[in-house]
Design brief:
Elements: E1 14-18, H1 24-36, E2 42-46, H2 54-60, E3 66-70, H3 85-104, E4 109-113, H4 115-120, H5 126-134, E5 141-145, H6 151-156, E6 159-162
Parallel strand pairs: 1-5, 1-6, 2-3, 2-4, 4-5
């Protein structure tokens, strides 16, 4: 791990942030910022997202330690049964990039943002993500985010956090606001 805080005892785990509540991506970003404070690099892959978010601008200031790439189209995809071929290819491209970044060993943390939703929408098979996890070096942390985490991911993970919506102002017609939801 070049240019990173060295800790020979660092053990990388698998974390899952799931549930229908707000905050999964934000929690993963918070972990990346915390890690940056200790000199650890994070590769943050956003599946399904292709639009500009406030966090992208903020994270650019930490770009020597946190790299974010998006592999979705503008706007969030909505799939009912058969995903579009372009969405599948973008997701597959993202997974290949994650694998390359993990194997490069430049990053201590690899975040697969919205990967649970990508599996739910059939952009990947669960097995493809398990194959990715099988290649995880011992000293690299992997974070899987998104609603609909498959049970097999939950069973495999070392840490699982469920964000549960209790109440949300979207139900009152409030749209996503700059700086808060986007």
């Amino acid at each position: 791990m070049e240019d990173q805080a060295q800790d020979d005892k660092f053990k990388g785990y698998i974390q899952v942030y799931t549930g229908n509540g707000k905050g999964k991506t934000t929690a993963a970003l918070g972990l990346a910022v915390r890690a940056a404070g200790h000199g650890l690099k994070t590769y943050f892959c956003q599946f399904l997202k292709g639009q500009d978010y406030g966090e992208l601008s903020a994270i650019q200031k930490l770009s020597s330690l946190i790299t974010i790439e998006q592999f979705g189209r503008k706007g969030f995809i909505h799939v009912t049964e058969n995903p579009d071929k372009e969405d599948i290819e973008r997701a597959q491209q993202g997974l290949r990039k994650c694998s390359k970044m993990m194997k490069s060993r430049k990053y201590r943390i690899i975040v697969l943002d919205e990967v649970n939703v990508a599996v739910h929408f059939n952009l990947f098979a669960e097995k493809e993500i398990h194959d990715f996890l099988d290649e995880k070096p011992e000293d690299i942390e992997v974070i899987l985010t998104g609603r609909y985490a498959p049970e097999s991911f939950i069973e495999r993970a070392d840490l699982v956090t469920e964000m549960k919506e209790i109440k949300h102002y979207y139900k009152k017609g409030i749209q996503a606001r700059k700086g808060i939801e986007k």
